[in-house]
Amino acid sequence: MAQLRAFVALAEHLHFRDAAAALRMSQPALSGAVAALEETLGTRLVERTTRKVMLTPAGERVARRAEFVLAELDRLVEDVKAVRGPLVGPLRVGVIPTVAPYLLPVVLPRLAKDFPELELSVHEEQTDQIVAELLAGRLDVVVMALPSPVAGVREVPLYDEDFVLVAPVSQDVEAPSEGVAREILGELDVLLLNEGHCLRDQAMDVCREVGARAVAATYATSLATLVQLVSGGLGVTLVPESALPVETRRAPNLALHRFRDPAPFRRIGLGYRATSPRAAEFEALAESVRAAIEDGTPGFRTSG
Predict the structure, then answer these.
(1) What is the pLDDT of residues 78-102, one digit of tens each?
(2) How far apart are CA 107 and CA 297, in angstroms?
(3) Residue 21: half-sphere exposure toward Cβ, Cα within 13 Å
């Protein structure tokens, strides 16, 4: 089955390097697995050129059938896991970068306590990547901002968190006791994350609501860098509540301004394949995550 997975990844990406990266294996190992499958089937599946990979007619047929076989195998494995008991054995979890550093330290000890036989592996990627890997069967469940960007993903809400306006202390921001109005963003230069981060899209939605604009140049690939740029006086930004204790601790000269109600917020939740038979397990996982948040993370509004 490892050979089939290697070939399906190559058929999807049509590039050995990209396929190997998606499977987190070396290019020689991927090439060897595809060659072994070709030898087993007695036919060439791919045409290798110096610049790209193309599927042969036989390769196209095998790719279509292999996706079906692997999907059925994944369902069989999940059925067996369900019989063994809730959350026993391996669980492959994808988490977006603007959640992982702040949520995982809170929830991992609780998961180890609640599910001692769980073998957790965590993969941090942007939303589009972890959802693609989820639907391809390479991840079992993902933690992301809701709603899902594609169909076929069932959602379980975990918590809501407000966005906070982070500005340099030198920035003249009028901050009444009831909180700042969203419209203030129209008077400020708003810094955003690079394209591909769902947090960028959420922040842009807030800006569009009030007719504000983001700074034309995109500066940061992480929240840590974004907050440091604000600390340096290059503009203001929106930071989710969970990230504030970590990121603002490492950046001087910052002022935090909460928005008046209703404040802009994001909803974080679990996502899993709608065809998965493990819905009850993922509900149990969500309950454990919510309990950990309620015990150790003030300011969040658990949902579900």
Answers:
(1) 666 655 567 888 899 999 999 999 9
(2) 10
(3) 8
- The number of C-alpha atoms within 13 Å of 25 and in the hemisphere containing its C-beta is 19
Q: Please give the full DSSP string across 198-263, using - where no structure is assigned.
A: HHHHHHHHHHHHTT--B-SS--BSSHHHHHHHHHTTS-BEEEEGGGHHHHGGG--SEEEEEBPSSP
Q: Are 25 and 84 in contact (CB under 8 A)?
A: no
Choose among 102, 108, 107: nearest CA to 161.
102
Cα–Cα distance for residue pair 208/4, rounded to 1 Å: 46
- The CA R_g of the chain, rounded to the nearest whole Å, is 23
Neighbouring C-beta atoms of residue 168, cutoff 10 Å:
19
Q: Which two tokens stand for residue 284?
A: 């149990």
Strand partners, 94: 123, 142
Which helix (H) or strand (E) segment holds residue 283: the answer is: helix 279-296
Supply the pTM of this predicted model.
Answer: 0.72
Q: Is residue 256 scored above 60 in pLDDT?
A: yes
- With tokens 């003030």, the residue in question is 298
Q: Give me the mean pLDDT over the 110-125 stretch.
A: 93
Q: Which amino acid is at 152?
A: G
Query: Are the C-beta atoms of 142 and 94 separated by less than 8 Å?
Result: yes
| Residue-level pLDDT at 199 | 80
Which pLDDT tens digit goes with each residue over 259-285?
A: 998 888 999 999 999 988 889 999 999
CB atoms within 10 A of CB 49: 8
